[in-house]
Write a structure and sequence with these properties.
527 residues, alpha+beta, 5-stranded antiparallel beta sheet, 4-stranded antiparallel beta sheet, 13 strands
Amino acid sequence: MADVLADEPLLLALIVVGLGAGIGAVRVKGLSLGPAAALLVGLAAGAIDESWSEAAGLELLREFGLVLFTYTVGLASGPSFANGVRRGGAAAIGTTVVLVAALGAASAGLAALLNLTPADRAGLFAGVSTNTPALQAASDGLESGDPVVAYSLAYPTAVIAMLVMTTLVLIRRPPLPVRLEVPTAPRPERIINWTVVVTAAGLPTLAELRQRHRGLGFSRIGRDGAVRVATEEQRLEPGDVVVVVGPESTVQAFTREAGQRSDVHLPLDRGTIDFRRILVSNRQLAGRRLADLDLTHRYGVVATRVRRGDDDIVAAEDFELGLGDRVRIVGPTDRLVEVARLFGDSERRLAEIDAVGLALGAAAGIALGKVSIGVGPLDLGLGIGGGPLVVGLVLGVVARSGPITWQIPHAANQLLRQVGILLFLACAGLASGSAFADAVVTRHGLEVAAAGVVLGGLFAAIIPLVLVVAVRRDSVETAGMLAGIETQPAALAYGLERSGDERLSQAYALVFPVAMIAKLIVVQFLV
């Protein structure tokens, strides 16, 4: 059996991925190893039989997994990253670069103190920063040595340190024993819809009311016994009944201004005006704004909310549609069928990714990663981990070019990303299992592990302090940026589970791509 597995690297890798995914899914008090378990299982397998570490084809599978992971991360992060930059995220981005560079300098200093090899130095940095593309960049740049050993020794302590700091930040305690007030952050308000009886006269148009009450939407108006779709140019008059959608405090503020909440909920009357959630599966709509579709004038309907992933969002005119979004449409019953045809509304179609866009985008990323720039004695490049990430960021914003759809539906993106990272970590562990077994029981291995504990704990503690003081982020945003700077999805998932606040994801998406690229560059200096 050992010989069969050594001759069949794909079979070997899939067995390790399966075992690693199973172990990683086990939760103890809310914590799990996640994809990192595939690395540990791979290390154990490689240590059991040295021929498994030397199986031909592992390197190709490892690179393929990394490309899948980084490219899909870029596609998913592109729009959020661009929005974060436009909203003034320059300070957070600059702070991220400084923190990553500081970690690189600290890794170099500690490595010099302990007389570590370049491979250990780079692996220590990649492990403490929990960054798998940096590990690949280190492997590509080294002439000798294996950075996976140091990476695997430092990685677990860094993850634990991050989860501990995330807990401390989210319960609003200072991350370090200093006198520091961390601003509290309200949880995001739930989206509600009320039926409001209008009593005020002289109200402006619905478009002007939406400008006055940001985040507010209107779906239907009842007047003189007739119900119609609410359009932007309409004005409310005393006696009208209007359905209002938005965050709870915003809806309450509008109700105080316009009238009072009705005891009769208008959406329950579905005789002439109905509503329906319609799935966006038409690839031509990827990246299109709702305003561009002109739903009100073309179909006599209005979009009120969008369900993306697990989040409900008020449908503003400038909202950009993504494949997999579920748009709540209100309008005449017979027109909803036409809108469904426009949006696609097909689960089967949504499961079909644009293979042309996926292949060409990933290929462009690999090609970009091969480009290097001479900086003194160094040839710096993004490598196979950074090139696909950068191309994915750009194409995630572009969404579609003519007949080619770059964007991948949310569910498919998550699937490809998980497969990619599991395959990469499993193959990385297999290839380094023998070396890891030899090093872990030596004094040298203990020194590397100790260095990982020191750097991992220190870095995880310093990040929240810097973010609160220098960038003035509240506790929720700080937790998201901590996970983003550490490029650690497990910390993001843990933070979301504890807080339920989607601003964590927004802060994570702002700094994650920058931290990823910065680490790819810093590790090349360390090599």
